């Protein structure tokens, strides 16, 4: 059945491996102090990340050989499972909170697992499958575009209950991108936007926690010890790095100054240790990755795979851009891991799996 | 799958996404580059400040010694308690413990302990026995986040002694007044530092580098102040200020003319530099908390002000010594000149009265004129001398500049500009009015007169030593200039001696010593707000002065405001005790009180007894009824006991007469003259031993003894540390 497999996109594969490698080094550096404090083992996080990476690469290589069409076949099932997981996490006793009572995780024993991560991919698969089947109808509002927003609203509603706003944002944006690429009309988006944006704004301002985040974002220096703490520590880290960085392992900010140094703020530690040169390297690598992803999407054999490819690529692109904006104080602090680099098993596995799908599509590109 | 193909529109939209992504990526890359180049230095510094803890290791502040090697100021090792709030587990418990132990408000401590600062200071200058209790408690309860660091607290072992000379230090051991301020750089040394890297919870980062800079201890100082003379001086000044109700306080300075050494500088009211920020007496203590900041500030500034150098006043007649010196030295007058006083004199259209206008001095020699403190005589001298000459000497004596004493806040004299001086101004200035000078400049000038005409820089610090006692720097006596000739100096000293032995300065007369001096009763200001300064300058011994003394009492409201009446006795007391302390030989030993053996008079008649006791240099006091022929039956003290000359012998003419009993007063801590007066007042005789203040008395205070009994008092130089 897989006798005549064509080669996949090596540039993409190599880029991902390099990013993972850099990420692994940074996890080692950033987490050693925390590992020592919490587990009496400076390599605690590094070893786990390394093992998940090995598994992730395995999954990636396996999926690169698994024909992408299978996702279309099981698209609805995958989506239903994802919805079920999102419901599951809300059941008291199942979901475990990480911060401020949010229930985002399911503890699998070996690792924590975030259903929202699955939901992002499931959403891409589901929308790609559905849009590719109903491309013509998409240009109509009530029968075409509107039902998708019901679906998006459903997912967003479940994430709101966790709550997990950054996931809502990412899933919303990815969905809009897919609908846009799929052919929906600009004017329809404008109509939807006029309804959704005010709801989002109100949703933010009814919670003090969210308002604090926004205020802290607008002027982090107004409360250095409180809401502004994390982002200012991040700026200290990146600023300290200068052009050439303090050198690998030389970060000071990782010593209990910068919370989440090894996951959401891994880029800050990277900026501190490897400087502007290191940051530009990572930025270039992500640029390369996204470029390859879009090329694959444009050359994809069919609309389904094209949409999936663009969805996956944009998911990675958005997570990276938002994370970069967060660590440089241009966006409020939200839980947003850097793909392939931030510490975290489920995130790493899922992004590796996504690249596996993308690589499989790359095997099937049309070369005209 | 068949109809599932991509349209051109789809691909175009993908390209749009690529474009948007690239724009966002470039913008964010720019943002990163901005942070890591333009803002890098600023952020790096802020990060460094946060990541490192800079702890100061206090250097030990130098010790200040008196010239007789007594400790006047010393730094005692104390401890500072601080807390790293992020490490504190149970803030309430810790705050309670600290509040209880240190006597602080719980709420204030709790606020500090729960603050977001990296490190907060809870208390400074805590005694070691207190911190030891805290240390034990920390060990028992495994409390985290409390730091106890050694610091230095300034301690003035003699409390108020020489307070205005020493000054004091602030909460960070920085010299704020006095020597502590002027010698700040020498005393402080260089504090050491430890810069260590810490993590966000305030713990040291393991294996991180630590920069250590060892502290360099401060230097020690040896002052010219002699603790005993300072003590005599303060002890003489304080009661004079209090008894004469001197509203604006008083100063007394003792200087050694040959070197310019300030042997004592007393200012009253004084303060305890250990409690420099007040309250300064019990009266203030009672209302202290009700005072607002401005009132406290006013009290503090007034307490801290060293009037001896910072205040100026019109010296009045004490300045006639200077006019005399100028007149003799410039040849304006000789000792053979005579001056006529008719009670008033008219100069430049203004008529000025002599202080004794009601009984004019008539014709006087120059020496008598000084002794009489006759204003018309000095007015004539001034006018004859002319303003150029007079001002030349004022400049030469150093009145128009700072003396250069190494104490902060010295003021300069204020005189009429020479072009504004006409005969009237010259006339008043000649007897010491209508210009202002500092006490230190006057005593420096008087010392110059005493020192063969050589003006010295007043010396307060003699030596700088390292902590091992090695001399690093010796502050040699400095001659400013020869102001008057040696001959003039000798003449003026002789005239001053006559002021005391025959003139207005009689209250400063000390038996056995030739004391020179000059009184001064000066009006301050004009009109309704006029007040007086009663002052006296003295030199002793007049032929070869070892000390020059100035006593000035500001605004006395008591029965007398005359310098001769109230300042001369203070000067006398200071000179007397200082000369004895310095073991200066009397000029006339015969005059000195010597011991007398009490003769046997029992069995003699009253008349015979009188003669015998008179011959022996003793006084007598017969009890009961008696006639010249009564036979003395008993005498107290008994024969063959040595008593001081002029002691009173109590005599009884009745057999088995009931003896008059008196209670022995407590003389502990009194000076010789005080103790003698106290005992004599109740009819007891005194035998003294030693110098200084009373240390032991036999019989003890409170004992009932027969009137006339001998009380032996041992005096000791007060050890001041």
What can you see in these coordinates?
The complex is a heterodimer of chains A (368) and B (721). Chain A has 368 residues and is mostly helical. Chain A has one domain. Chain A has helices at residues 10-39, 44-65, 69-73, 75-88, 115-133, 141-161, 165-182, 186-205, 208-218, 229-241, 266-298, 303-327, 345-363; strands at 95-97, 103-107, 112-113. Chain A is globular. The model of chain A has no long low-confidence stretch (mean pLDDT 88). By secondary structure, chain B is an alpha+beta fold. Chain B folds into 4 domains: 1-38; 54-223, Penicillin-binding protein 2a (Domain 2); 310-589, DD-peptidase/beta-lactamase superfamily (Beta-lactamase); 594-716, Trypsin Inhibitor V, Chain A, CATH 3.30.10. In chain B, 34% of the residues lie in helices and 24% in strands. Chain B contains 22 helices and 31 strands. In chain B, the strands form 10 sheets. In chain B, strands 2, 3, 4, 5, 8, 16 and 17 form a 7-stranded mixed beta sheet that branches. A 5-stranded antiparallel beta sheet of chain B has the order 10-9-21-20-19, sandwiched between helices. Chain B has a 3-stranded antiparallel beta sheet with strand order 1-6-7. Chain B is extended, with a radius of gyration of 36 Å. Chains A and B meet through helix 7, helix 10, helix 11 and helix 12 of A and helix 1 and helix 2 of B.
Keywords:
heterodimer; A: 368 residues; mainly alpha; three-stranded antiparallel sheet; 3 strands; 68% helix; B: 721 residues; alpha+beta; Penicillin-binding protein 2a (Domain 2); Beta-lactamase; seven-stranded mixed sheet; five-stranded antiparallel sheet; 22 helices; 31 strands; 34% helix; disordered C terminus
Bulk shape of chain B: extended
Number of domains of chain A: 1
The largest sheet of chain A has its strands arranged as 1-2-3
Task: Classify the secondary structure makeup of chain B into a structural class.
Answer: alpha+beta
Structural class of chain A: mainly alpha
Helix content of chain B: 25-40%
Oligomeric state of shown chains:
heterodimer
Mean pLDDT of chain B: 88
Annotation, overall tally of beta strands of chain A: 3
Specify the biggest β-sheet of chain B: 7 strands, mixed
Radius of gyration of chain B: 36 Å
CATH class identity of the largest domain in chain B: Alpha Beta
The amount of helix of chain A comes to 55-70%
Intertermini distance of chain A: 25 Å
């Amino acid at each position: 059945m897989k006798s005549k497999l064509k080669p996949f996109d090596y540039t993409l594969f190599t880029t991902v491996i390099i990013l993972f490698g850099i990420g692994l080094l940074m996890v080692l550096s950033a987490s050693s102090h925390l590992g020592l404090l919490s587990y009496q083992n400076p390599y605690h996080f590094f070893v786990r990340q390394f093992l998940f990476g090995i598994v992730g690469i395995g999954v990636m290589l396996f999926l690169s050989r698994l024909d992408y069409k299978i996702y279309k076949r099981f698209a609805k099932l995958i989506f239903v499972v994802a919805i079920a997981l999102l419901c599951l996490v809300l059941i008291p006793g199942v979901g475990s909170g990480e911060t401020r009572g949010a229930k985002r995780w399911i503890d699998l024993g070996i690792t924590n697992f975030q259903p929202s991560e699955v939901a992002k991919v499931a959403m891409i698969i589901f929308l790609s499958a559905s849009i590719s089947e109903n491309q013509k109808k998409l240009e109509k509002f009530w029968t075409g575009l509107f039902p998708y927003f019901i679906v998006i609203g459903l997912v967003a509603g479940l994430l709101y209950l966790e709550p997990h706003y950054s996931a809502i944002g990412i899933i919303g944006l990815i969905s809009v991108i897919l609908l846009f690429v799929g052919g929906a009309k600009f004017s329809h988006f404008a109509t939807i936007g006029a309804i959704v944006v005010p709801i989002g704004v109100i949703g933010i301002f009814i919670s003090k926690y969210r308002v604090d985040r926004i205020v802290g974002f607008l002027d982090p220096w107004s409360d250095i010890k409180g809401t502004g703490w994390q982002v200012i520590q991040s700026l200290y880290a990146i600023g300290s790095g200068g052009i050439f960085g303090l050198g690998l392992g030389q970060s000071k900010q990782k010593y209990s100054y910068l919370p989440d140094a090894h996951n959401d703020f891994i880029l800050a530690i990277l900026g501190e240790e490897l400087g502007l040169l290191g940051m530009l390297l990572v930025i270039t690598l992500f640029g390369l990755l996204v470029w390859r992803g879009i090329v694959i999407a444009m050359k994809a054999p069919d609309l389904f795979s094209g949409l999936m490819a663009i969805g996956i690529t944009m998911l990675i692109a958005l997570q990276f851009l938002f994370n970069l904006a967060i660590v440089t104080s241009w966006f409020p602090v939200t839980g947003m891991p850097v793909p392939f680099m931030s510490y975290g098993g489920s995130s790493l596995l899922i992004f590796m799996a996504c690249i596996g799908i993308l690589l499989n599509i790359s095997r099937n590109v049309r070369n005209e | 799958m068949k109809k599932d193909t991509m349209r051109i529109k789809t691909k175009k939209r993908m390209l749009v996404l690529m474009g948007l992504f690239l724009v966002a990526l470039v913008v964010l890359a720019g943002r990163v580059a901005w942070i890591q180049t333009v803002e890098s230095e600023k952020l790096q510094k802020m990060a460094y400040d946060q990541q490192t803890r800079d702890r100061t290791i206090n250097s030990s502040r130098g010790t200040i010694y008196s010239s007789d090697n007594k400790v006047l100021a010393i730094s005692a090792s104390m401890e500072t308690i601080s807390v790293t709030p992020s490490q504190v587990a149970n803030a309430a418990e810790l705050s309670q413990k600290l509040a209880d132990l240190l006597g602080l408000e719980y709420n204030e401590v709790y606020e500090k302990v729960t603050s977001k600062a990296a490190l907060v200071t809870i208390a400074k200058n805590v005694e070691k026995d207190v911190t030891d209790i805290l240390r034990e408690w920390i060990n028992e309860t495994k409390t985290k986040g409390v730091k106890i660091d050694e610091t230095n607290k300034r301690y003035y072992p003699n409390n108020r002694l020489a307070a205005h000379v020493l000054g004091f230090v602030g909460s960070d051991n920085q010299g704020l007044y006095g020597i502590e301020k002027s010698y700040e750089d020498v005393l402080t040394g260089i504090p050491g530092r430890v810069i260590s890297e810490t993590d966000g919870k305030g713990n040291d980062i393991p294996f991180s580098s630590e920069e250590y800079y060892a502290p360099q201890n401060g230097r020690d100082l040896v002052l010219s102040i002699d603790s005993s003379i300072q003590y005599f001086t303060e002890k003489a000044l304080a009661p004079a200020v209090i008894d004469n109700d001197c509203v604006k306080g008083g100063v007394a300075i003792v200087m050694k003319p040959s070197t310019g050494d300030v042997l004592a500088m007393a200012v009253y009211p004084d303060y305890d530099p250990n409690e420099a920020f007040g309250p300064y007496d019990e009266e203030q203590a009672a209302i202290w908390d009700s005072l607002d900041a401005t009132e406290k500030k006013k009290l503090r500034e007034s307490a801290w002000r060293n009037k001896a150098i910072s205040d100026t006043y019109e010296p009045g007649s004490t300045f006639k010594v200077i006019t005399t010196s100028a007149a003799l030295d410039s040849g304006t007058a000789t000792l053979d000149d005579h001056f006529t006083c008719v009670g008033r004199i008219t100069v430049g259209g203004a008529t000025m009265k002599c202080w004794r206008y009601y009984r004019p001095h008539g014709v006087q020699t120059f020496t008598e004129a000084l002794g009489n403190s006759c204003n018309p005589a000095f007015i004539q001298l001034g006018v004859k001398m002319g303003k150029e000459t007079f001002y030349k000497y004022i400049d030469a004596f150093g009145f128009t500049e700072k003396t250069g004493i190494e104490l902060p806040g010295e003021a300069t004299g204020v005189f009429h500009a020479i072009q504004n001086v006409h005969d009237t101004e010259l006339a008043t200035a000649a007897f010491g009015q209508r210009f202002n000078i500092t006490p230190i400049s006057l005593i420096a000038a008087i010392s110059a007169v005493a020192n063969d005409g050589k003006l010295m820089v007043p010396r307060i610090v003699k030596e700088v030593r390292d902590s091992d006692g090695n001399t690093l720097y010796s502050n040699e006596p400095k001659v400013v200039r020869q102001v008057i000739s040696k001959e003039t100096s000798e003449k003026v000293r002789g005239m001053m001696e006559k002021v005391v032995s025959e003139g207005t300065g009689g209250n400063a007369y000390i038996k056995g010593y030739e004391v020179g001096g000059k009184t001064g009763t000066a009006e301050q200001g004009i009109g309704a707000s006029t007040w007086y300064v009663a002052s006296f300058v003295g030199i002793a011994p007049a032929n070869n002065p070892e000390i020059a003394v100035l006593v000035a009492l500001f605004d006395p409201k008591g029965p007398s405001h005359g310098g001769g009446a109230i300042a001369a006795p203070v000067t006398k007391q200071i000179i007397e005790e200082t000369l004895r302390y310095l073991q200066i030989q009397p000029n006339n030993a015969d005059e000195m009180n010597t011991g007398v053996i009490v003769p046997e008079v029992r069995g003699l008649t009253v008349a015979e007894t009188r003669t015998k006791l008179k011959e022996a240099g003793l006084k007598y006091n017969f009890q009961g009824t008696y006639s010249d022929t009564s036979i003395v039956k008993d005498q107290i003290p008994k024969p063959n006991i040595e008593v001081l000359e002029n002691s009173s012998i109590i005599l009884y003419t009745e057999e088995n007469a009931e003896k008059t009993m008196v209670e022995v007063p407590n003389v502990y801590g009194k000076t010789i003259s005080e103790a003698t007066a106290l005992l004599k007042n109740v009819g007891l005789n005194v035998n003294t031993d030693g110098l200084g203040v009373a240390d032991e008395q036999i019989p003890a205070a409170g004992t009932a003894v027969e009137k006339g009994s001998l009380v032996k008092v041992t005096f000791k130089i007060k050890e001041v540390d």
